[in-house]
What we know:
Radius of gyration: 20 Å
Amino acid sequence: xxxxxxxxxxxxxxxxxxxxxxxxxxxxxxxxALYTGLYGSRFAVQSADSFARAIGYPRSxxxxxxxxxxxxxxxVPDVSLNAVANLGYAGCRFLSPVYPGDTxxxxxxxxGLKENSNRKTGVVYVRSVGTNQHGDEVLDYVRWVMVRKRDxxxxxxxxxxxxxxxxxxxxxxxxACPIIDPDAYDTxxxxxxxxxxxxxxxxxxxxxxxxxxxxxxxxxATRLYQNTAKVxxxxxxxxxxxxxxxxxxxxxxxxxxxxxxxxxxxxxxxIAAINGGRHVAPLFAGHTVxxxxxxxxxxxxxxxxxxxxxxxxxxxxxxxxxxxxxLRQGEDYDPSVILDLDYWALIPV
Length: 349
């Protein structure tokens, strides 16, 4: 039998199949420093142990998206090694805080399959759960990914498109944030004075800044997460593909957009859930990412008076500043839009 792993193709997946992914990953302070170096994220709770302790954390937690990327990266060799593109996310909940020294592992279940009409590819839906060394669940989410077929003539597996939540209820989020002391939350040190009650439904925020994507940075990022998808690394093969070059990992775009959102949402320190997300268009090195956000909802959390929840839609664009809040052209997305992300973030009252 071959000793190497060519990755799964669409016809290899089966509904209900459970995949225990290899290589547990211990998160270190080196990982968090490198993550900051890649994106320049400035959220105070994740940046300073002293700030985090003052409001009730034992120390600075790992950035929520770093946790997401590491849990995600475990799944790639078994789910998306032969992916054409990662398409979207739903029902993502951050369930426990992660700290340097914690070890993360991931298990996935195939919950949906649909062959595309070209018979060259199909869409695979998986629910992935990340746990720490104690068996505590730290994250669960659904994603769907377009995967190549090995043989176009191979029969498709039974089709099922799962029903997914459009938005998570406020009472289902917040478990990864301990009770904090909002009076000890120093908005001067955090970089912005605006708290929960300063945001209103329908408000739009241009995050102003842009960040140009470099080939080396996105490759370092995907290596950091042990994401081995060929579309991000192998110019020899991708040079012969439909784009002629490597794709920027979609999670890289999410982290850039989140870092940019600090300018306007500095105190929305914790991503509690991702309701849904769509990678609208590909991104390549050399493009500059901009972002804007809209407040979709403002909710108090049941049983808590320390933090509230903002439901935020963050839209990222390429080579298009966002003062005009680009989103749609008729029924289609504006050509500049690359990411449309809907999430809940917690902010002190």
